[in-house]
Amino acid sequence: xDYIVIKLGGSLxxxxxxxxxxxxxxxxxEEIRGFFEERNKDNKRVILVxxxxxxxxxxxxxxxxxxxxxxxxxxxxGITATWLNAELFRSLLDDLAYKRVLGVGVYAENRKEGEExxxxxxxxxxxxxxxxxxxxxxxxxASTDFNAVLLASKIGLDEIYKLTNIxxxxxxDPAKSKVSKPIKDISWKDYLQxxxxxxxxxxxxxxxxxxxxxxxxxxxxxxxxTCHLMDGRDPTxxxxxxxxxxxxxxxxxx
Length: 254
Known about the structure:
alpha/beta; Carbamate kinase; 7-stranded mixed β-sheet; about 15% strand; globular
């Protein structure tokens, strides 16, 4: 059985301009439905991990400004926002998707606990014939990027796709630097160095505006997982992902 793991960046769904982007949600649900109903000749199964985007950031910042000083509770608020975005997709694709968003109700303190607490639903989906599993967050102190890499690793996949609101990883923030250059191919170790981190010294920055979370990058390096990062602002690009075609963007690899 072939599987595809796709991380749908929360910034696509919930941006600073729109709490939820109707056109993107509608576009992606139509593309996913069209794939399963018309083009899935190889019976591929898809895991779609959905991020929290600006909704997650706004709720976290509101809590902080109201006096919430617990990092754990701030992480929980951010995770909960991912469930809302994921449930939106699950409800619109409920005839194709597993009956629950993976991770709902789980605020795991670490990876091991996270794997244990999602285990029943994950195994239930794997053992069935359902085509689509939708996940939000479920590990405190980690992003949905981390969840996507983790789920791919659990089923032996060596690649994931991340659809986001940028076209490439850049050498510097293009909004701040005129000499910033797009990067088409980069190792996880070199990627971490762009943010002053290393495989041996990684710190998660909640709600950070970076292409891929640094903890996810380390996990991907440890588990030999490659990531195809691509511009997802046009939902039709997911057709190339489903078809297994070469995609335009940055290839991040061990």
